[in-house]
Amino acid sequence: MSAFKQQIIAGKTAEEIRASWEPGLSKYKETRKSTCCTPEHKGGIFPVFGQT
Questions:
Q1: I need a labelling partner for 42 at 20 to 30 A (CA). Which of 10, 24, 32, 35 fits?
Q2: Quick check: 31 and 44 in contact, CB under 8 A?
Q3: pTM of structure
């Protein structure tokens, strides 16, 4: 059974469930910053054409 399903069965609120995602979400966002190729994420492994 997934952790999400367990949280629902346990009666957790939506806020509690969202809060439980924060550590993994923060880690994902940090990883994405270093690999994303959009201008707002400079320094990624896929440079945007025209950026220096």
A1: 24
A2: no
A3: 0.56
